[in-house]
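Give me the fold.
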Amino acid sequence: MTSTLPPGTDDTTEDTVAAAVSPTVRRTARRAVPWIVLGVIALLVALTGLALSGRSLGGDTLSATNPGLAGGKALAQVLGQRGVTVKPAGSLSEVRDAADDDTTVLVFDPKGNLARDGYDQLTSVASTIVVVEPSFSALQALAPDVHSAGEPGGVASAGCGLPAAQRAARIDPRATENTKDTSSPGSFRATGDATTCFEDSKGAASVVATSYQGRAVYLVGSAAVLTNDGIDRLGNAALGLNLLGEHRTLVWYLPGLVDRPVTGPAELDALTPGWVTPVVILLTLVFVAAAVWRGRRFGPLVVEHLPVVVRAGETREGRARLYQRSSARLRAADALRIGTIGRLSSTVGLPRVATTDEVADAVAALTGREHSAVLSLLVEEHPRSDRELIDLSDRLTELEHATAAAASPDRPRPTGRMEQ
């Protein structure tokens, strides 16, 4: 078989190319093993967490379809076996569709989605209303004479003539390990015609029987009495079966977000004190007045083409005004002296790199003045007022004129001969 390699290529190159192959399935799977192990570990951790929490996937606390420890499916199934039709509902419209003329409505609303008028609507479709762990608004709507009394004390006896309570005899309303983070068990104190049952040592009741608009209302302080992991404690099951199995239809109602009243954002004046609005208006008027005042002071805008040529005199006067406004006398004096020293060095014929002391020597020799006086004028004097600064400026100008006159070639000089 003839080789198809191009000229100048040996057989070793062909062998090398033939040895390079694509990754095999085994090699790819071997690289993916660590990721598969991590995924399995994450899945096991998630399942363990769900098991410890006592909930099934997507289950809510005390839900009729939740088989987890915190659910209520066990009670719902037993009621169904006893001939009660259990219908879960998540909104008021579903409750109205599911209810008939012989209906018990169980309400568990730990998130407070149901408003006060929602409880009024329940009385029009329910024969009996059982509210588990009622909120303050629920108590105000259904039983104004019943008040919250804190957490239940523990195991309690019926202590009342309510048939469901007498059949249960004793209950344990305390929260279980699976409901302590998802519910808020409580107890009640009641006045008026309300019947209190299962009172603890402090007189706080776990169950209250009352009425509202001709409907029987039962208040159960703890959801743990009805959950899957608490229903088997003492007489909890008997209490739940007798309260919820009184009628042939049970609507198991867990209010959702659709039942929450729709309200718009609060107005700004409702969120702020009464004095804020007048103060804001006053500050706005002050700002407008200040803007008009400053705008009139600056005058109208002037359109000027760029670049603009500014005369040296204007620049000097502007800098002088800045110095005067900030009382920078020493900086102004330094500017005057720098200019004077530069002009004096040119007048006496010294280079620009000459020191101040050299300039003072040359000026003193040329004008016949004391070296110390010239040096003091050029460097050492510090004006403490505007008057002293003006005086210094005048003396510097006079020194420049005297030096220029002394250095002028037209000035007569002594020849050393006696004039006749």
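The chain has 15 helices and eleven strands.
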